[in-house]
Amino acid sequence: xxxxxxxxxxxxxxxxxVAACRAVDSSKEASRVESAAGTAAHxxxxxxxxxxxxxxxxxxxxxxASIRRGLALVMHTADSLPEYAPxxxxxxxxxxxxxxxxxxxxxxxxxxRFPKYxxxxxxxxxxxxxxxxxxxxxxxxxxxxxxxxxxxxxxxxIAWLSTGVPVGEGKKLPGAEGILSMxxxxxxxxxxxxxxxxxxxxxxxxxxxxxxxxxPPGIPALWGPRSFxxxxxxxxxxxxxxxxxxxxxxxxxxxxxxxxxxxxxxxITSQPRPDSPGKENDWxxxxxxxxxxxxxxxxxxxxPPPVIARxxxxxxxxxxxAPVRRGAAR
Length: 330
Ligand code: HEC
Ligand code: HEC
What we know:
The chain has about 325 residues and is mainly α. It contains twelve helices and four strands. Among the domains are: about 55-160, Cytochrome Bc1 Complex, Chain D, domain 2; about 190-310, Cytochrome c-like domain (Cytochrome Bc1 Complex, Chain D, domain 2), CATH 1.10.760.10. The protein has helices at about 5-15, 20-45, 60-75, 75-80, 90-95, 95-100, 125-140, 150-160, 190-200, 200-205, 235-245, 260-270; strands spanning about 115-120, 125, 275, 305-310. The strands form two sheets. Strands 1-2 form a two-stranded antiparallel ribbon. A two-stranded parallel sheet has the order 3-4. Helix 9 crosses helix 12 (about 260-270) and helix 11 (about 235-245) crosses helix 12. The longest helix is centred in the first third of the chain and has 27 residues, at about 20-45. One heme C (HEC) binds near residues 96 and 251.
């Protein structure tokens, strides 16, 4: 009987302080519920069944407005930010369906994957720098100021698109490593690839590979001055072959043989494209993958394409994070 005494005493004490007791009780309750839900969500997180949220669920508040602007920038990058994305190519052309396609380097879940160590940089980098690698390399454009409204909107969109993906759990979503690696290490043949291009790609991407923004949903450039730069992952034969096999021809994905995908990738990656200033400093600790088409420390360029000089070369480089100099700021 007297084991219940403390509870009775507490209840009596509450009579005069009803409101306060209720507040204490419900806040305790809330934090218990929250931590239980958190644990349950982590235990239950199943990378194979997780789905990114639909655009129709973007909240109707200030954060939602930012997410919506970020979505618009990812879909219409070149129209929205011509100074930063001067080509005929938008984020969604590679990160298909606004970054939801697990076979096209998904942005869904990226929020939980950064900060991250990147071998190409040889440093741990934040998500904003990763976005800027795509501005400078994949869009062959200029670095977007990290403090800008537009960068923050893109980051808000990526965070929202990653809703429910736990941080630091070690359970990887499909596609978390970027473009899937192709187990078949085939070698493309440029001449055969040219024939495949003429038969299966030219109708949309055009004889000069320049694409056409006027044909819905907007056909991006595969080479030439308005395409991705030589420093983009897509400029590597193996990455391009995987992207193409998994996603092209648009609307008829996986219809090519894997050899055809490597052949057409060899053709596309041999064509002229914008340079990528500073690329020789990539993989500073070595370990450059075989198909990288430019020379780095300990690596000879693999079938390097002709490159087109960049304007504003300094704005096309994303400096790696550097330690603050002691006594530099007060
Ligand atoms: C029916 C039109 C169509 C055909 C045919 C087609 N593509 Fe595409 N391609 C697109 C569209 C549209 C996109 C952008 C996808 C998006 O925004 O969702 C794209 C994107 C790409 C990209 C990534 C973006 C870029 O600019 O690099 C590559 C690479 C690519 N296509 C290669 C090919 C290859 C190779 C073939 C032939 C095997 C091919 N495509 C056939 C319409 C087409
Ligand atoms: C030419 C194709 C292309 C375009 C255009 C492009 N990207 Fe990428 N992006 C990639 C590829 C490929 C990867 C993954 C790298 C790999 O597979 O090695 C990537 C990776 C990323 C990542 C890291 C994903 C992760 O979780 O590791 C982010 C974030 C990103 N891109 C954002 C953007 C944004 C924002 C834009 C538009 C401003 C953009 N990208 C335009 C090809 C592209």
